[in-house]
């Protein structure tokens, strides 16, 4: 990520907060004004820069199917797919061609965040310019083949050969690679798998013996393997809360996080540049988010945030969301930005640590 505009970022952020404060003043309950009716009879488009069917697209379609009644009278929400370049192409379109009229928001997931964080020349957008609407952090679990004969994460260092399967150094599974770097866990990595489904199959077939899966894939595909005695759970990656801190994954409350594994091994909590780098990669890979253009009408920004604020307090919406998305919290407005701040405000030192570590361990250029 290009940090030469860090001072500029703070100026932008301050302006955004002032604008948000303008919205927040007055009859807010507790953070946003009553609905203005901006979306009454209107259609909100969610620009999703991937093809239909993936995890992020599914999350966007869940929002499209449920948030309308909270957004306005006869308001509708439609997902618009703009796939290409791993999410970068559609996000560039949002930056360069989408009007700031409040009728279109951008869906963000790992695919377009990693190229942004690592400063890809193809990226034309800067999330720090946008207004955060809502976010959700969804975690995942690192597990091993039972053929290793281990029962917990501290025994990983007793294994002669750990082999991990991955799509690419900038894929969602790089969260696990950053965790291994933080833990200084010796391992080999095989890159080139098409997705995380094949990496799980590689473990089942004995090609690898260490794997990571996101929450939904882990609960549906890996937990049966654990029951069969094929796999052993090790630790969760944790999730980032509204204070920007790493906490236990609510989907796996009895499982230690990578931070707890580190503390048990080293006798102290993780800190320093490796910790900052891990948190940046974690939030980049685990958070799905909606952003609005900064020049969208204030009424639109207010009604967007108001809708999610009301929805997350609605019992039926809450229960349905747990069923569809897992027990993860809807983070509205600046809480959403805070959850992403480890990525959006990553230091040059943490970025350099990631580049050097991935080059040394995997001969990968970030």
Strand portion:
15-25%
* Low-confidence spans: 2-29
Strand order, main sheet: write it out: 2-1-3-12-4-13
Number of helices: 14
H/E element order: HEHHEHEHEEEHEHEHEEEHHEHHEHH
Global outline: globular
Overall mean pLDDT score?
A: 91
Outline the biggest β-sheet.
Answer: 6 strands, mixed
Distance between the termini: 11 Å
Given helix and strand content, the structural type is alpha/beta
Q: How much helix is in the residues?
A: 40-55%
Radius of gyration: 21 Å
The total strand number stands at: 13
Could you explain how this protein is built, in words?
With 366 residues, the chain is of the alpha/beta class. Helices cover 44% and strands 17% of the residues. The chain has helices at residues 6-24, 55-66, 68-71, 88-97, 110-117, 174-183, 196-204, 215-227, 258-266, 272-286, 298-312, 315-325, 334-344, 348-362; strands spanning 43-48, 76-81, 104-108, 131-137, 140-145, 163-166, 188-191, 210-214, 231-236, 239-240, 246-247, 287-292, 331-332. Strand 10 (239-240) and strand 11 form a beta hairpin. Helix 6 (174-183) packs antiparallel against helix 10 and helix 10 (272-286) crosses helix 14 (348-362). The model is unreliable at 2-29 (pLDDT under 50).
């Amino acid at each position: 990520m290009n940090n030469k505009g860090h001072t500029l970022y703070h100026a932008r952020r301050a302006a955004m907060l002032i604008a948000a404060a303008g919205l927040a003043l007055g009859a807010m309950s507790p953070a946003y004004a009553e609905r203005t009716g901006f979306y009454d009879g209107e259609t909100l488009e969610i620009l999703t820069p991937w093809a239909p069917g993936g995890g992020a697209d599914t999350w966007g379609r869940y929002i499209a199917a449920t948030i309308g009644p909270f957004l306005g009278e006869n308001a509708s929400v439609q997902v618009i797919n703009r796939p290409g370049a791993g999410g970068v192409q559609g996000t560039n379109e949002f930056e360069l061609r989408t009007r700031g009229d409040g009728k279109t928001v951008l869906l963000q997931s790992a695919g377009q965040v990693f190229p942004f964080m690592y400063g890809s020349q193809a990226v034309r957008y800067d999330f720090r310019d946008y207004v955060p609407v809502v976010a959700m952090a969804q975690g995942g679990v690192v597990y091993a083949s039972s053929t290793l004969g281990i029962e917990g994460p501290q025994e990983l260092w007793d294994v002669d050969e750990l082999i991990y399967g991955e799509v690419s150094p900038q894929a969602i599974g790089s969260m696990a690679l950053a965790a291994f770097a933080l833990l200084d866990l010796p391992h080999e990595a095989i890159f080139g798998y098409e997705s995380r489904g094949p990496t799980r199959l590689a473990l089942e077939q004995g090609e690898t013996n260490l794997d990571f899966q996101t929450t939904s894939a882990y609960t549906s595909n890996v937990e049966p393997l654990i029951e069969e005695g094929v796999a052993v759970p090790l630790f969760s990656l944790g999730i980032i809360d509204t204070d920007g801190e790493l906490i236990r994954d609510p989907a796996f409350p009895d499982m230690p996080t990578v931070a707890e594994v580190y503390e048990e091994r080293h006798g102290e909590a993780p800190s320093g540049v490796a910790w900052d780098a891990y948190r940046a990669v974690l939030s980049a890979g685990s958070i799905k988010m909606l952003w609005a253009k900064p020049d969208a009408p204030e009424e639109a920004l207010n009604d967007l945030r108001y809708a999610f604020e009301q929805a997350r307090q609605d019992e039926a919406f809450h229960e349905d969301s747990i069923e569809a998305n897992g027990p993860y919290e809807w983070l509205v407005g600046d809480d959403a930005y805070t959850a992403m701040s480890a990525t959006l405000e990553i230091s040059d030192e943490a970025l350099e640590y990631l580049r050097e570590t991935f080059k040394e361990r995997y001969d990968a250029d970030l």
